[in-house]
Amino acid sequence: MALNLSRLRMLYELERLGTVGAVADVLHYTHSAVSQQLSQLEKETGHALLEKAGRGVVLTDAGRTLAGYAERILTLADEAESALARTGPVVGTIKVASFQTVLVALIPETVAVLAERYPDLHVEFIQREVLDGIESLLDHEVDVCIGEQFPGTRPIGGRGLVRRDFHTEPLLLVQPTKGEFSAPLPLAQMAGFPWIIDPKGSAAGQFTWSVCQSAGFEPRTFIESPDPLLALQIVGQGRAIAILPSLIVGRFPERVAVRALPGDPGRVLFTATRPGRENHPAIVAFCDALAEVTKRLQAET
């Protein structure tokens, strides 16, 4: 029995995503083409892998068994590709999903380091919020996702991901240098101050809300935005306060006054890859350069 890797991936994606339509979208096939390939896989194995459920299909016991092996086989194929790549120079193109803070504070210097060390390695970036970036990684749209983990939030990771934590940085209270919102008051006395906060559904937004609620109040939202540069600009103009990571604040220290938060909380920066790809030389080169630049810039702030 010869098993086709492309068809095995379709079966694995069907288990992961739940519908043939979703598989077709991720793999850029038509719905009928996916159905035909899965039918061919059933013929190759001699087992019914799918059964109807309403207007869709679900995996049979045999289908779930093969999907588990498919995941392992696909990972092993990626491991083999990575091992072969390690026999030659670091070349090629990788795609990276990242959120704004890292793109602003870390990526320019990381790209400069890579250009000097590996001139034939090309890195392409797309801006994604962390959970969207993880989905892009699982859908094979990108090779690496850069993420962040805030204190008290649900851990990001699990099946289909290899996570590498590369930096923990302080989260800071950022105030104007002058004006009515510049006084270094205890946090509990800032209940009436205007705040710039990430969207409440985001990890950063949830963290700011939890800090304020722990101090006994709900923040008065002046601007809800995920843009840290906007927050720095508005705080620097004396119009609000915010909680921001030290890396982005450290790039523009003259604009604001910075204070530690109770308990000195920090966010963890990490890279995520798919299993079997974490040791690919191009991915290792990028992740190592990113960690090196982050460490150096943090030491300079």
Features:
301 residues, alpha/beta, Arc Repressor Mutant, subunit A, D-Maltodextrin-Binding Protein, domain 2, 3 domains, nine-stranded mixed beta sheet, two-stranded antiparallel ribbon, 11 strands, 45% helix, elongated, DNA-binding transcription factor activity, LysR_subst-bd, DNA-binding
Named CATH architecture of the largest domain? 3-Layer(aba) Sandwich
CATH topology of the largest domain: D-Maltodextrin-Binding Protein, domain 2
The fraction of residues in strands falls at 15-25%
Superfamily at the CATH H level of the largest domain? Periplasmic binding protein-like II
What is the CATH class of the largest domain? Alpha Beta
**What would the average pLDDT be, to the nearest integer?**
94
Output the helix-strand order: HHHEEHEHHEHEEEHEHEHEEH
- Structural class, by secondary structure, is alpha/beta
Described by strand count, sense and barrel closure, the largest sheet is: 9 strands, mixed
Low-confidence stretches at least 5 residues in length (pLDDT < 50)? Answer: none
Number of E-type strands: 11
How would the global form be characterised?
Answer: elongated
* Overall tally of structural domains: 3
Protein name: HTH-type transcriptional regulator
Family: Belongs to the LysR transcriptional regulatory family.
GO cellular component, one term: protein-DNA complex
Keywords: Activator, DNA-binding, Transcription, Transcription regulation
